[in-house]
Amino acid sequence: MNSDTERLLWARLSLFPGSFDLDAAEAICGFGNLSDTLVIDVLDRLIGKCLVTVDRSTEQLRYSQLMTVREYGHELLESSGDSEELCQRHLEHYSTRAGRSSIDWVRAWTGAG
Fold first, then answer.
1. Burial group, residue 25, by CB count within 10 angstroms (0-12, 13-18, 19+)
2. Between helices 39-48 and 22-29, what is the axis angle to 10°?
3. Is residue 85 within 8 Å of residue 79, measured between CB atoms?
4. What is the reported pLDDT for 103?
5. Which of 76, 66, 63, 62 is nearest to 1 (CA)?
């Protein structure tokens, strides 16, 4: 790692137990010393260093970390003091996403729109 922002994003991404999309990475990890607008560039650098993998088999790109990489990143996260805020941001992001999906499903089912 040659960048504090790369280390920071690597640590924050360790919060995701599986794959994630760019929207989630920006919304959850983009705050403080790493703005949401920088996430995509830093994520690209982590991909180039094989610290993040990309699944291109779906319409929307999915990103993930190998378990050993994620575990080390989680150690970095624990020492950063960002864990509580990240967990809250993760909860809010996916709660909002679930709420929107529920509304979309009901509208599609009922024909309301």
1. buried
2. 120
3. no
4. 72
5. 76
**pLDDT more than 70, % of the chain:** 96
The class level of CATH for 4-108 reads mainly alpha
Token pair in block for residue 96: 């909002």
* Confidence check: pLDDT of 107 > 80: no
* Structure-token match 């990309």, residue found: 54
Q: CA-CA distance, 24 to 21, in Å (whole number)?
A: 5
Domain chopping of the chain, boundaries: 4-108
Mean pLDDT to the nearest integer, 2-12? 90
- Give 69's Cβ-side CA count (13 Å radius): 18
Joined together, the tokens standing for residue 83 give: 């864990």
DSSP assigned state of 51: S
